[in-house]
Design a protein that fits this description.
heterodimer; A: mainly alpha; 11 helices; about 70% helix; globular; B: mainly alpha; two-stranded antiparallel sheet; two-stranded antiparallel ribbon; 6 strands
Chain lengths: ~300, ~350
C-alpha cells in the first residue's frame, strides 16, 4: 500500500511539472493558435540559464532564477517578433515546422555552450526529503506540486477574470473583431510568448533541481507533456492541469508496476505511455477533455 | 527558343547515366545514393502532405517496416530484389491503411501530434521487438540487389568493374525517377485532382462526390509504399540498421525535404532530398577547416552544427521561400526567359 501511495505522490509531483510545461503550450496556443513545439527548448534553456547565473556565476540561486526568467521572457518576445510575426496567415504545417526549426536551433546552442554533461543545479532544496504517512518525497517535489498549483491557478484566473486575459482569448477567437475593439494582437502575442518563456524557466528549474540535474535531455520532457495538453484540451488551462496530472500519475504507476506485471511491454514503456493514453482518449473525444469541439461551417 | 520536352528528357537521362562516371569521389557518390533513397521516401511524403494535405509525421515507422520486412523475408526465403522490394511495399501499404485510419478522425494540429505519437510508439516497438530489429545491437543485413542478370552491387561494363556506389547510384536514382514518373501520372489524372480537392476544401470535395475516406487512405497507402521501399533500399545499401534511427529527427528531415524542396510539386521532393542530404555531407567535409571537434564541454560538434544549420534552414525557407526551392528555380528560369525573349517592336521603329 505504501508503494501505491508513494507512486501516487510522485505521480502528482511529476504531473504538476507536466502541467506547467503544458501551460507553456496552452498560453501560446490559446492566444495565437500556434502549437509551439519549441517549448521543450524553452524549458531546457530556462534550466541552463538558471544554472549559469545561479551556480557558476556564484550569485544567490533565486537571483539567478530571476535573471533567467527575465532573459527567457525576452527570448519569447524575440521569437515572436522576428519569426512568428511573419508567419501569421500561413498554413498550420508551416507554423509548426518553424517552431520545430526553432527547437533544432536551441538544442545545439545549448550543447555548444554547456556541453552534454549532467550538472547539478545548485538549488537550496537539495536532496532533502519529507516523510509523511510512510511516503517519502523529495522536498523539491513538494515544491513542484505547490508551485504548479499556484501558477496554474494564477493563469486560470488571469484568463478568466482579468481584462488582459480576456483580451488574449478574444484575439485567438477572432483577431479582427478583437482589433476592432482596440486589442493589439501583436501585444497579445508578445505577452503570450513571454509567458511561455517564463513558464519554461519555472518548469525547467522544477525538473532539474535536487538530484535530477541539468542536461540536454531535459528538452525531451516537452514531447511527453504534449499528450497531456492534447488530451486535456489544447486551449484549456484546466485541461493542462488535469492532463498533466493524468499523464504524470499514469507514467509513474506504469514505471513502477510494469516490471513485475507486464515486462513484455518493453523497457521504458512509461515513456511512450503518455502517447498511448492520449491516442486512447482522443479517439473517444478528439477535442480533449476540456476542449471545445471545432464546428466547421460550410 | 525553348528546347522541346523529349530532348530535355533525353538530355537529363544522359546526364543521369553519365554521373557515376563523372563523379570520381566515392564519398560524393555515396551521398548521392543516400539522397536517392531519401528522394523515394520524400516523393511519397509529398503526395501525402503536399497533394492530399494530410499532415502526418509518421514516415519513420514505414521506413523501418520496409527495412525489416525486406531484410527478414529476403533472408528467410532467399528472395531476389524485385520480390523483396514488392514485399516491403506491401507491408508498408498495409501499415499505411492502419495508420491512415487515424487521419479520418483527426485533422491538422491533432493529426500532427497523433502522428508524432505514432513515431514514438513505432520507435519503442522497434527497439523492444528484438527478433525483428536486433534490439539495441541493431541488425546486420545482406540483401541481394540483382535485377535479372544485372547485379547493381557488382556491375561491370565492357570489362571495367564499377564500384558498389556507382551501381547503387543508378539503382536508387533510377527507382526515384520511376517513382517520380508514376507520381506525376497519378497527380495529373483524376485521383490526383481528387486528392488536391480533399486538401483544399474537404467538405466541398465531398459534396461533389469525392469520397475523402477513399482518397485519404489511398494517399496514406501510396506514400507508405514509397516509404517502405525507400527503407528497404536503405537497408540494402547501408547493410546495418539500428532501431533508434527510426525516430522523430528522421521524420523532421523528410518533412524538411518536402517543404524546402517545394510542397505539392513534382520536382520538389527530389530537389529537397538533394539539398537536405547534402548539408550533413558538406559540414562533414569542411569540419576540419571550421575547427569543429567531437567535443565535450564547450565545443561545437559536427552534429550540433548539422542540427543548428538544419533548424536555421527550415526557419529561413519557411519565412522567405514558402514555396520551396522549386519556386526559386522557376523564378530564375522565368527571369532567364525574359532576358532571352525576342524584343517587341520598339516605338522608334515605327517612326521610320
Amino acid at each position: 500500500m505504501t508503494d501505491f501511495l508513494q507512486y501516487l505522490a510522485s505521480g502528482i509531483a511529476l504531473g504538476g511539472i507536466y502541467a506547467l510545461v503544458c501551460l507553456g503550450f496552452v498560453v501560446v496556443y490559446r492566444s495565437t493558435g500556434v502549437l509551439n513545439l519549441a517549448q521543450g527548448g524553452f524549458v531546457m534553456l530556462g534550466a541552463f540559464l538558471t544554472y549559469q547565473f545561479g551556480k557558476t556565476s556564484h550569485l544567490p540561486f533565486f537571483v539567478g532564477m530571476i535573471i533567467s526568467i527575465v532573459l527567457m521572457a525576452g527570448v519569447g518576445v524575440l521569437v515572436e517578433r522576428t519569426i512568428l510575426r511573419h508567419m501569421v496567415a500561413r498554413p498550420t504545417l508551416a507554423i509548426i515546422m518553424v517552431t520545430l526549426g526553432l527547437l533544432y536551433v536551441i538544442q545545439p546552442l545549448v550543447t555548444s555552450i554547456w556541453g552534454f554533461d549532467l550538472h547539478l543545479l545548485g538549488d537550496p532544496w537539495g536532496l532533502q526529503t519529507v516523510r509523511a504517512g510512510g511516503v517519502s518525497l523529495p522536498v523539491i517535489e513538494v515544491w513542484s506540486i505547490a508551485l504548479s498549483a499556484a501558477i496554474l491557478a494564477t493563469f486560470f484566473s488571469f484568463f478568466k477574470y482579468t481584462r488582459l486575459g480576456i483580451a488574449m482569448r478574444a484575439t485567438a477567437a477572432d483577431p479582427e473583431a478583437a482589433a476592432a475593439n482596440g486589442i493589439s494582437s501583436s501585444t497579445v502575442a508578445g505577452i503570450a510568448w513571454a509567458a511561455a518563456g517564463i513558464v519554461g524557466v519555472v518548469s525547467g528549474v522544477m525538473l532539474t533541481a535536487g538530484n535530477q540535474g541539468v542536461s540536454v535531455d531535459v528538452g525531451d520532457i516537452a514531447f511527453r507533456a504534449f499528450p497531456a495538453m492534447m488530451l486535456g484540451g489544447a486551449e484549456s488551462t484546466a485541461g493542462a492541469a488535469v492532463g498533466g496530472l493524468i499523464i504524470g500519475v499514469c507514467e509513474v504507476f506504469t514505471a513502477g508496476y510494469i516490471e513485475p506485471h507486464a515486462p513484455w511491454l518493453g523497457a521504458n514503456f512509461h515513456v511512450v505511455l503518455p502517447y498511448v493514453v492520449m491516442i486512447g482518449i482522443m479517439l473517444v473525444r478528439p477535442q480533449g477533455i476540456f476542449g471545445r469541439a471545432k464546428v466547421e461551417r460550410v | 527558343m525553348t528546347i522541346p520536352a523529349p530532348y530535355r528528357l533525353a538530355f537529363g537521362l544522359l546526364v543521369f547515366a553519365a554521373l557515376p562516371f563523372l563523379v570520381k569521389s566515392d564519398f560524393w557518390l555515396s551521398v548521392g545514393v543516400f539522397t536517392g533513397i531519401a528522394a523515394i521516401g520524400a516523393i511519397g511524403l509529398n503526395l501525402l502532405i503536399g497533394y492530399t494535405g494530410q499532415l502526418s509525421l509518421a514516415q519513420p515507422i514505414f521506413l523501418g517496416t520496409g527495412a525489416y520486412v525486406a531484410a527478414h523475408l529476403a533472408s528467410s526465403f532467399n528472395l531476389p530484389m524485385p520480390l523483396w522490394i514488392a514485399a516491403a511495399g506491401i507491408a508498408g501499404g498495409i501499415l499505411g491503411v492502419l495508420i491512415g485510419i487515424l487521419s479520418l478522425r483527426f485533422k491538422e494540429h491533432y493529426l500532427i501530434v497523433i502522428s508524432i505519437g505514432v513515431v514514438f510508439l513505432g520507435e519503442h516497438v522497434f527497439v523492444n521487438w528484438r527478433q525483428l530489429s536486433g534490439g539495441l545491437n541493431g541488425l546486420q543485413i545482406a540483401l541481394p540487389v540483382a535485377l535479372g542478370p544485372i547485379d547493381f552491387a557488382h556491375l561491370s561494363i565492357a570489362g571495367m568493374a564499377l564500384t558498389r556506389n556507382q551501381g547503387y547510384f543508378w539503382l536508387t536514382w533510377g527507382l526515384a525517377i520511376v517513382g517520380t514518373w508514376l507520381c506525376a501520372n497519378l497527380v495529373r489524372t483524376r485521383p490526383g485532382r481528387a486528392m488536391q480537392a480533399v486538401r483544399d476544401r474537404e467538405i466541398a470535395a465531398a459534396i461533389i462526390g469525392i469520397d475523402p475516406v477513399r482518397f485519404k487512405l489511398g494517399a496514406f497507402v501510396v506514400s507508405s509504399v514509397y516509404a517502405a521501399i525507400g527503407g528497404a533500399l536503405y537497408a540494402a545499401y547501408s547493410r546495418y540498421v539500428d532501431p533508434n534511427q527510426w525516430n522523430l529527427t528522421l521524420a523532421v528531415q523528410y518533412l524538411a525535404m518536402v517543404v524546402i524542396g517545394g510542397s505539392g510539386t513534382i520536382a520538389g521532393p527530389l530537389v529537397g532530398a538533394l539539398f537536405i542530404g547534402a548539408v550533413p555531407a558538406v559540414t562533414d567535409h569542411f569540419a576540419s577547416t571550421l575547427h569543429i571537434g567531437s567535443g565535450s564541454s564547450g565545443g561545437v560538434t559536427v552534429f550540433a552544427l548539422d542540427q543548428g544549420l538544419f533548424g536555421i534552414l527550415i526557419i529561413y525557407f519557411l519565412l522567405r521561400e514558402p514555396r520551396g526551392l522549386v519556386s526559386i528555380g522557376e523564378s530564375i528560369a522565368a527571369r532567364f526567359k525574359r532576358l532571352t525573349a525576342p524584343r517587341a517592336e520598339s516605338v522608334s521603329a515605327k517612326k521610320e
